[in-house]
Amino acid sequence: MLQKLADQSINRGIVLSGIDLGLADQIRGQIEGYIASGHMKECNTQICVPWARVREYALKAKAESTQRAYASDWADFAGWCQGQGRTALPAEVETVALYVTALAGERKVATIQRRIAAISQAHQFARHESPTGHVVVRTVMAGIRRAKGTAQVGKRPILTEDLRALIAQIPEEGAGQRDRALLLLGFAGGFRRSELVGLNLADLNFTRDGLVVTLRRSKTDQEGQGREVGIPYGSNPATCPVRAVRAWVEALGEEGGPLFRPINRHGQVLNRRLTDKSVALVVKRWAAVAGIESGGVAGHSLRAGLATSAAAAGVPERAIMAQTGHRSLTTLRKYIRSGSLFLENAAARVGL
């Protein structure tokens, strides 16, 4: 019986895909109830004992944000199928082709491609052949990409001069002290929002040369190999990231816990981690105060700003990649092209 339940959960792709965790919990409940009922003697302990761990490790194979995205994408596809009287799992090639065509009218290409990935994952874990790789689906997607284009609209980078303008508006105490440290560290380290809010006090090491930040995990390091990022002292004390972070750490007066934390309306620092969305709100808030159009900026503007500013200053690609942790030169060069448009510009040397 236990083996049958285990096979059922795997065959349907429930435990490993993360798409229908409610049913996974229901099946696990049946297994746990079976064990608790005194039938342990009938149970193969090699299956019973590690089963919870199988589920736990399987779910850790992908980041929580990816699991949420896949769950949302699968729910959308399943809901569409239900409304059209079609089967979602296993889905026919025609069903997927019609679905992506319906999405093309209102969704971006990147969103459609992510939906296809979720559909593919669900079928693979359920041990069904995925219809997403069929030539019909691939041809329809090629047509959608050509019709809609694949260029992504990036966030406006916060450049060095922009950052100076922001910092000049921020007070040096309370929430302002935290925001100064967050903005300056985010820019100097080229950090992602998730990396910034994931930092703990224990990840900081102040040295004679500056600040060494240890990233335990990141978007491109899901297995937690970690890397160290050097943050040098700034030439201007008002915009020095090392001094700003040290001032915030001293204000916290603690040795452990999250580095960046929420502050309530009474000015009290809460003992929990700031969310990644809060980083975007901080950037937008101070950009607006500094007179910078806040509609095009977000948390990613700090990371994009460092890469763009460094490229404009003639910093080599390898040095920029070492700081930002970019693994793709293609992605990095989007910033470099923007930052170096007028460096060694051909039109600037022809005497116009």
Written description of the protein model:
Helix content is 55%, strand content 4%. With 352 residues, the protein is mainly alpha-helical. The protein has 3 domains: 2-59, no CATH class; 64-148, Tyrosine recombinase, N-terminal domain (DNA polymerase, domain 1, Orthogonal Bundle), CATH 1.10.150; 160-339, Orthogonal Bundle (hpI Integrase, Chain A), CATH 1.10.443.10. It has a 3-stranded antiparallel beta sheet. Helix 6 (64-84) crosses helix 8. The radius of gyration is 25 Å and the shape is globular. The protein starts with a helix and ends in a 13-residue tail after the last helix.
**Largest sheet, order of strands side by side?**
1-2-3
Discrete helix count: 17
**Can you name the CATH architecture of the largest domain?**
Orthogonal Bundle
Overall 3D shape: globular
What's the CATH C level of the largest domain?
Answer: Mainly Alpha
Strand content: under 5%
CATH topology (level 3) name of the largest domain: hpI Integrase, Chain A
Report low-confidence residues grouped into runs of 5 or more: 1-31, 38-43
The named CATH superfamily of the largest domain: Intergrase catalytic core
Mean pLDDT: 81
- Give helix and strand order, one letter per element, not per position: HHHHHHHHHHHHEEEHHHHH
The major pleated sheet works out as: 3 strands, antiparallel
Helix fraction bin: 55-70%
Structural class: mainly alpha
Rg of Cα set: 25 Å
What is the domain total for the residues?
3
What oligomeric assembly is this protein in? single chain
Based on DSSP secondary structure assignment, what is the total number of beta strands?
Answer: 3
